[in-house]
Design goal:
alpha/beta, eight-stranded parallel barrel, 11 strands
């Protein structure tokens, strides 16, 4: 009897612990919902920037155990906030957050470029597995053309392409960019993309707005040598756009050749063109544009079906004097060409001025997104702003706007 009683006591104790953990997770994750509830599919993504250790790892040179623990903590937080997609920067600057035969390990992982984690593990494989365990998508974010973040301070390994092929790069202040007009650069980029898609179970390859560099006073992107070689009588602006077109088209084809169901997404600057220079542009008044300054013809890529989704970085507040958020959301909704469109929201701006100190700014943007046709969700930049619950917006997502889990939008890969 004593043995039976003891066993029964152990069983009861275990049951109490199990119930306690279940209840704790219920209250911790406010998005826990009764089964059977339905919500419209919606992209709810967050960008995790690794360059300069913006979001993850919290600092370079952490041990692998510390890196893994911090990523799991980050994932759990976002899962409880109702996030369904994680976008991790795995190639920030011609380097890698995974084992690569083509590029060195990132300095923002181990503290020194070219040095592998010790004891060894593959961060990308780990991140994908942990993300998928939680029912979330994993999008691998690469920067196609950023080569060296700072020529004076960056760690540059002997096997970085800047050391091996300095002729592939163009200087722009302290930065070094891969030359988009160099055919060898374009071919190398395809090797990198194919390698990721072939070896890792990523749900998408994601590129951002770093095409040709943003204009800066006193700085010139001197790509004249490439232009002379391959310009073929074109105007410089048209030639530059054709280079970016070629890169985007080639990446799209490379992805689908390796894995048809892997998406290709781009998150461009929020303004394509101003209506003052192009009647099809947005009614915005000032600042750089994709087409004229970054040489990124986003609408062509959408028309031709080269990208599966677009997430314009609409990082302005509602009612902004020159680039109102609501005006840009409406413009993008009318120019999706049947591809999935999500809106990039700059939650990192929380508290920087009166508009972004207003706690209703994010709720109003979410409401605008949800009430606008052809917009199928949102992405937040960046992870840290939600982890730190700036303006209480993480609580707002968890308790209200994302309180019911949502699947990601469907995509027809045969279209």
């Amino acid at each position: 009897m004593k043995t039976v009683a003891t066993a029964f006591y152990v069983w009861i104790s275990a049951l109490k612990v199990s119930l306690l953990l279940t209840c704790s997770m219920f209250f911790f994750c406010a998005n826990a919902q009764p089964s059977g509830q339905f919500v419209v599919p919606e992209m709810r993504a967050v960008w995790i920037a690794t360059i300069n250790n913006i979001d993850w790892p919290p600092r370079s040179g952490m041990t692998p155990d510390q890196q893994r623990a911090s990523f799991i903590q980050l994932l759990n937080k976002h899962q409880c906030n109702g996030i369904n997609t994680i976008i991790v920067q795995v190639r920030p600057s011609g380097d890698a957050f995974y084992f690569s035969a083509y590029e060195p390990w990132s300095q923002w992982l181990t503290g020194k470029q070219g040095v592998a984690p010790q004891p060894f593990y593959d961060p990308l494989q780990f991140m994908i597995e942990e993300t998928h365990k939680r029912g979330m998508e994993f999008h691998a974010w690469i920067n196609p053309l950023r080569g060296v973040q700072n020529i004076k301070t960056s760690s540059i390994a002997d096997n970085h392409l800047f050391r091996l092929h300095p002729e592939w790069f163009v200087g722009f202040g302290d930065k070094r960019f891969f030359d988009p007009g160099n055919k060898a650069v374009q071919q190398h980029l395809l090797l990198v993309v194919k390698d990721i898609v072939k070896r890792y179970d990523v749900d998408a390859i994601h590129i951002d707005d770093y095409f040709y560099p943003y204009p800066e006073a006193g700085k010139k992107f001197n790509d004249q040598e490439s232009f002379i070689k391959s310009g073929q009588g074109m105007k410089l602006d048209d030639w530059r756009r054709s280079n970016i077109d070629s890169i985007v088209c080639s990446i799209s084809k490379a992805i689908k050749e390796e894995k048809k169901t892997c998406q290709f997404g781009v998150s461009p600057f929020g303004v394509w063109r101003h209506s003052s220079v192009d009647s099809t542009g947005s009614k915005t008044a000032a600042g750089p544009t994709d087409y004229d300054d970054l040489y990124a013809n986003i609408l062509l890529w959408l028309k031709n079906g080269w990208v599966d989704y677009v997430t314009p970085q609409v990082y302005w507040e509602i009612g902004h004097r020159h680039t109102p958020c609501e005006v840009l959301i409406d413009w993008w909704s009318k120019n999706t060409y049947g591809r999935n469109c999500y809106i990039g929201i700059g939650t990192y701006k929380a508290g920087i001025n009166a508009a972004w100190k207003d706690k209703s700014q994010l709720p109003r943007q979410i409401q605008k997104i949800r009430s606008t046709p052809n917009i199928k969700g949102m992405m937040f930049f960046s992870s840290k702003s939600l982890e730190n619950n700036l303006n209480g917006w993480s609580d707002s997502l968890q308790q209200h706007y994302f309180s019911i889990p949502a699947p990601t939008p469907k995509f027809d890969f045969n279209r």
